[in-house]
């Protein structure tokens, strides 16, 4: 039974998520459909890349991951079907694929859309479902789509660093208002080189140790740990870090702000680590 995951920015307020699942099952009743999230923020590529990347690596080999994020940022002519590290990813040709993988996929094909079709979400899911079914039936790649097509690539949002520091962006705020920073434990340790450190946010909030769990500090105290996806997390034991500190997630829309507004926003969405 082929596993198919769904990730989108659709939300749960109306019929569309249910209609997407219904259309998938109409095309292939053998699909086993699993939701990752439908509550991602529209137009927030770093957030979507973090959620998808962190979830995908935990699924069994040869799972199909359909990602319905910003499908219509530009006029869609194709969907991308990529194979990488024993996982299949299907998404729009909008730059998200390169941000999720952070490297070139092992294989990618462009699945064409009919020029005369009305290219709404349900049509896109039909194209994706038919491509998956063709692949499962052993059809050659050139009959499913165009191998190695030209497609849009966007650089993943990476931390900046110097000899004695590393600075990250807040890429996600979870349901408990814990704050996720785009610094992985591997990046942190490589830059740390065994040195002492200070993690600083909002200029005057400082943490000087990495906790193993929320219970390592007293109730109401701030802490920093690395979450199960391996990313730095700022939290408060039984509290709401984002709300209390006024921290905000990164958004590409902020790049369109004035320089003064941009600096003000960066103050609340960057975290810097100093090594001594």
| Mean model confidence by pLDDT | 92
Work out the radius of gyration: 21 Å
Write the CATH homologous superfamily of the largest domain: S-adenosyl-l-methionine hydroxide adenosyltransferase, N-terminal
Number of domains: 2
CATH class of the largest domain: Alpha Beta
Oligomer category? single chain
CATH architecture of the largest domain: 3-Layer(aba) Sandwich
Q: Termini, distance in Å?
A: 53 Å
* Residue windows where pLDDT falls under 50 for at least 5 positions: 256-265
* Major sheet characteristics: 8 strands, antiparallel
Number of helices: 8
Topology-level CATH name of the largest domain: Rossmann fold
Class of secondary structure makeup: alpha+beta
Elements, N to C (H/E): EHEHEEEHEHHEEEEHEEEEHHE
SSE blueprint:
Layout: E1 3-8, H1 16-27, E2 32-37, H2 45-56, E3 64-68, E4 78-84, E5 87-92, H3 96-101, E6 107-112, H4 121-136, H5 141-144, E7 146-147, E8 160-162, E9 165-173, E10 179-184, H6 185-192, E11 197-201, E12 205-207, E13 222-226, E14 231-236, H7 241-245, H8 259-267, E15 270-275
Parallel strand pairs: 1-2, 1-3, 3-5
Antiparallel strand pairs: 4-5, 4-6, 6-7, 8-9, 9-10, 9-15, 10-14, 11-12, 11-15, 13-14
Helix pairs in contact: 1-4
Report what the structure shows.
It contains eight helices and 15 strands. By secondary structure, the chain is α+β, with helices and mostly antiparallel strands. The protein folds into two domains: 145 residues, S-adenosyl-l-methionine hydroxide adenosyltransferase, N-terminal (Rossmann fold); 116 residues, Beta Barrel (Elongation Factor Tu (Ef-tu), domain 3), CATH 2.40.30.90. Strand 13 and strand 14 form a beta hairpin. It is elongated and about 60 Å long.
